[in-house]
TrEMBL record:
This is Uncharacterized protein. It comes from the Eukaryota.
Amino acid sequence: MLGAKLRHLVNNICPHYHTKELPGEEVARGRCKAAKSAKVTNQPATQVGTAVSTQNRVQGPKRKLLNLCTYKLHALGDYILQILWFGTTDSYSTQTSELQHRRVKHFYARTNKNGANIQIARLQRREELLQRKQAQVHKHLLSKKTQAKVQAALAQDELELLAYTPPITYPTLATSH
């Protein structure tokens, strides 16, 4: 379906539009042609370049057509499935890999540069071990704090026992906070 629409575009719509090279592309083509002819004649490109650039000005910009024989257009039909499977590419970020690279460079500075890969691996393992230990200590401290808070809350609840009230009556408020 997509291929048929693109062929219809090239065959029926594009011939009505006269598209040509941009001025920068035209100048670049002239420079390339001058460099090629300079290689053939073994002359500096500046001497040959003036003659070639005047020839290009006479010829003018080349006509440009839509080329359907490119991989970009060939793969266009697969984009939908790829987006459904992997998501859009605007959600990808190189930040994590850049930060990891910076981390490895930091480790490299701490090695003696002989067998740096092994030394970097040791430093990374040591850092991970220290982070794990720090997380365990933090978790242990938090559990002690939360236990103390829970016990304090239970003690507070025991102090303010309310009398029984039937479910139909409105709730009563505690006298102290």
